[in-house]
Amino acid sequence: MNNPTLEAFLASHERQAHDGDVLATVAALASAALAINKAIRSGSLGSAFGGTNATVNADGDTQRHLDLYADQIFLDAMRRAPVRCVASEERIAPVALDPESRIAVAIDPLDGSSNIDVNVSIGTIFSLLPATGAPGIDPAAFFLQPGSSQLAAGFFVYGPQLVLVLTLGHGTHAFVLSPELGTFVQTHESVAVAERTQEFAINASNYRHWEEAVRLYVDDCLKGEEGPRGKNFNMRWIASLVADVYRILMRGGVFLYPGDSRAGYASGRLRLVYEANPIAMLVEQAGGRATNALCSILDIVPTGLHQRVPFVFGSAREVERVARYHTEPSAIAERSPLFGNRGLFRA
Ligand SMILES: O=P(O)(O)OC[C@H]1O[C@](O)(COP(=O)(O)O)[C@@H](O)[C@@H]1O
Ligand SMILES: [Mg+2]
Ligand SMILES: [Mg+2]
């Protein structure tokens, strides 16, 4: 492979006047991911890592051994990087590190925990935010900046390949671990999400809990060629956000985790600061769209570190279409049983 290694990619960006601390932090995250990958591939998934601990995280989710192991590995790596504070899905409050540093890291150390026991892809999601200001400032404040303030974002997938997808704010780049070189090698210089799609991702078991706009959108996809969309749709749901977003970056698609009527799910399941924001930045840097069904994820000002948000992202035209099911109910109400000439919903 003649493509650049991650180290060469980062060095070339430093020459282009990128913040050296951002690049050093990305490099530290990558080396921690190599350690997690090695641990996962050691073969002890089921017994050592998959089992649950008798603990829950800040959101009430049961923590697995691998959640906590990954959290510790990444925190240790961030102590060795120019990082002022780290916020993790697995910790109620941020951890203060070097007060002289200017970067805050938000992290979902292990995404897709329900897939650990069943050997399906899992991953890590990270977001880098500016952390400037007086030394005494409460680190929690750094994580309440909107996603549009992110300096960099990315995720790793511990799947058939160990993959890194990264943005430094100028495009989205993909890398894969080269076992020969022992480091990441670039596979996609600039990822571009297809504008249109015929593939959607949603946990359909929640159908009865969704609001009408979401049900109608999915109903119309399922009707296929005979329905108002006039084309057949495929469906995927991996239940690891990292794996679903990687597929969408590579071949298009739309992902929905809407709010629903279950207790605790009014804003869906996914967390704004360390899941939706970094994924939204990556998807938008690749030409896709990311919303809470109505407005851009990156414009939302967080009010809490662990707050959830309805999340719709992927192929731009399809994400915009989902928004129209929410904002133009009159058009939905006028649906003809024969799906006549409804310009709004056709194709
Ligand atoms: O089990 P559900 O409700 O379909 O939710 C699946 C979603 O939950 C998540 O597993 C949440 O992330 P964590 O595993 O980090 O808690 C996402 O990766 C995935 O998209
Ligand atoms: Mg997650
Ligand atoms: Mg997690």
From TrEMBL:
<dbReference type="InterPro" id="IPR033391">
    <property type="entry name" value="FBPase_N"/>
</dbReference>
<comment type="subunit">
    <text>Homotetramer.</text>
</comment>
<keyword id="KW-0963">Cytoplasm</keyword>
<dbReference type="InterPro" id="IPR028343">
    <property type="entry name" value="FBPtase"/>
</dbReference>
<keyword id="KW-0119">Carbohydrate metabolism</keyword>
<keyword id="KW-0378">Hydrolase</keyword>
<feature type="domain" description="Fructose-1-6-bisphosphatase class 1 C-terminal">
    <location>
        <begin position="194"/>
        <end position="326"/>
    </location>
</feature>
<protein>
    <recommendedName>
        <fullName>Fructose-1,6-bisphosphatase class 1</fullName>
        <ecNumber>3.1.3.11</ecNumber>
    </recommendedName>
</protein>
<keyword id="KW-0460">Magnesium</keyword>
<feature type="binding site">
    <location>
        <begin position="111"/>
        <end position="114"/>
    </location>
    <ligand>
        <name>substrate</name>
    </ligand>
</feature>
<feature type="binding site">
    <location>
        <position position="110"/>
    </location>
    <ligand>
        <name>Mg(2+) 1</name>
    </ligand>
</feature>
<feature type="binding site">
    <location>
        <position position="108"/>
    </location>
    <ligand>
        <name>Mg(2+) 2</name>
    </ligand>
</feature>
<dbReference type="InterPro" id="IPR000146">
    <property type="entry name" value="FBPase_class-1"/>
</dbReference>
<feature type="binding site">
    <location>
        <position position="203"/>
    </location>
    <ligand>
        <name>substrate</name>
    </ligand>
</feature>
<comment type="pathway">
    <text>Carbohydrate biosynthesis; Calvin cycle.</text>
</comment>
<feature type="binding site">
    <location>
        <position position="108"/>
    </location>
    <ligand>
        <name>Mg(2+) 1</name>
    </ligand>
</feature>
<feature type="binding site">
    <location>
        <position position="89"/>
    </location>
    <ligand>
        <name>Mg(2+) 1</name>
    </ligand>
</feature>
<feature type="binding site">
    <location>
        <position position="275"/>
    </location>
    <ligand>
        <name>Mg(2+) 2</name>
    </ligand>
</feature>
<dbReference type="InterPro" id="IPR044015">
    <property type="entry name" value="FBPase_C_dom"/>
</dbReference>
<comment type="similarity">
    <text>Belongs to the FBPase class 1 family.</text>
</comment>
<dbReference type="Pfam" id="PF00316">
    <property type="entry name" value="FBPase"/>
</dbReference>
<feature type="binding site">
    <location>
        <position position="111"/>
    </location>
    <ligand>
        <name>Mg(2+) 2</name>
    </ligand>
</feature>
<dbReference type="GO" id="GO:0042132">
    <property type="term" value="F:fructose 1,6-bisphosphate 1-phosphatase activity"/>
</dbReference>
<feature type="domain" description="Fructose-1-6-bisphosphatase class I N-terminal">
    <location>
        <begin position="8"/>
        <end position="189"/>
    </location>
</feature>
<dbReference type="Pfam" id="PF18913">
    <property type="entry name" value="FBPase_C"/>
</dbReference>
<dbReference type="InterPro" id="IPR020548">
    <property type="entry name" value="Fructose_bisphosphatase_AS"/>
</dbReference>
<keyword id="KW-0479">Metal-binding</keyword>
